[in-house]
Amino acid sequence: MAVTQPFPRIDGELWAGERRVADLVAEFGTPLYVYDAGVIEAAYRRFEAAFAGVDHLLAYSVKANSNLEVLNRLRALGAGADIVSVGELHRCLTVGYAPKSIVFAGVGKTEAEMEAALDAGILAFNVESAEELEALRQVAERLGTPAPVALRVNPDIVTDTPHEYTRTGHGASKFGIPVDRVLDLYRWAADQPMLEIRGIDVHIGSQILEAGPYERALDRVLEIADTLRTEGIDLDFVDLGGGFGVGYDGEDGMSVEALAALVIPKLAPTGLRLILEPGRFIVGAAGILVTKVLYVKNSGSKTFVITDSGMTELIRPSHYQGFHRIEPVVSSDNPVHRVVDVVGPICETGDFLALDRMLEMPVPGDLLAVHTAGAYGFVMASNYNARPKPAEIVVDGADVTLARRRETLDDLLRGEALADGTIFPAGS
């Protein structure tokens, strides 16, 4: 499927696939997450083509966007899954992911999560500490099921990312096992009958735009793998993690072709399988958040464009100072541009989508599209201020799937109860 540009503007209007975005809003309302299936498929196939020269698994990073319809489409394309919770495991198994295509990451796996993943028969646990490894050994012993493991190495590589929270490969990060302790932990694991050593894992950060840091990380883990091999501890795979960056303001994202050119020549001679965990790269550009302008407020020194979306729908601008390009869904014939703050209705000063942004001035009722919102958008949404979460739709050419209905007010009450025995919502 050839997709040249996500959400193109045709005759002044934004389109998703073969549908006008304004028409989608007329049917589904705002706030609205819109995902273009063609863009998702094109990004996935680009990764597949780049790494065709080596045995590999693309384990989609579910935390980027866990919508079931999105997951199901990626499974149909051949993706595996990188999960960080039993909830993500449940979502993947629900839509038919093969357990042997799933790797389980995260620093805080509970025993219940370990049990569920062992029962499912996943490919491997990416273990992040000696303490976790011992807990996993005990769970495996109790269940009588050996646990497949890879140790996540913290290579102490400082990577240039847009925000300090997204640098995960340096020594001060909570993630991974210090590189100088990894060999001893592998040796200990090799002596445990209920642990099966399968691979080695590394993850150096998110929104990385250059391939070089991955090459440095790969060199470190291949050196460890080579040492283990000489000691009779053989690995099946190298998991190079994810974090492959995308362009948020028209700039180029990570060149997966350049990454493959660095990785494949080093990995192919080892015979090790490669696991990659793309998330944002697959779905980021494929999504927009469409929001309606409620008011335009001039306070003298500032002009505020107040919309019906805010940090409850998209928290990246507030939490990560993340930049998202914003433009009108339908452009004016005679646009006037002004520097504005695009803010939401939440009772927090930190509730904004853009600050000091040059924008085509809207009027109340106009629609704005917040771009590159397919990753870390809806999945980080909340019900703060008792706000129902928005709907999600997937557009495939002219076809549209309501992939998640908009929450109702009764949904906000679900699961709550009063001391007098009243259960909400009524009748549930």
Structure description:
With 428 residues, the chain is an alpha/beta fold. Helices cover 28% and strands 25% of the residues. It has two domains: 9-35 and 284-413, Lyase, Ornithine Decarboxylase, Chain A, domain 1 (Beta Barrel); 106-276, Alpha-Beta Barrel (TIM Barrel). It contains twelve helices and 21 strands. Strands 4, 14, 15, 16, 17, 18, 19, 20 and 21 form a nine-stranded mixed sheet that branches. The chain has an eight-stranded parallel barrel with strand order 5-6-7-8-9-11-12-13, surrounded by four helices. A hairpin with a 2-residue loop joins strand 20 (391-396) and strand 21. Helix 2 (37-50) runs parallel beside helix 3. It is globular. Residues 165-171 have low confidence and may be disordered.
In short:
With 428 residues, this protein is an alpha/beta fold. Helix content is 28%, strand content 25%. Strand 14 and strand 15 form a beta hairpin.
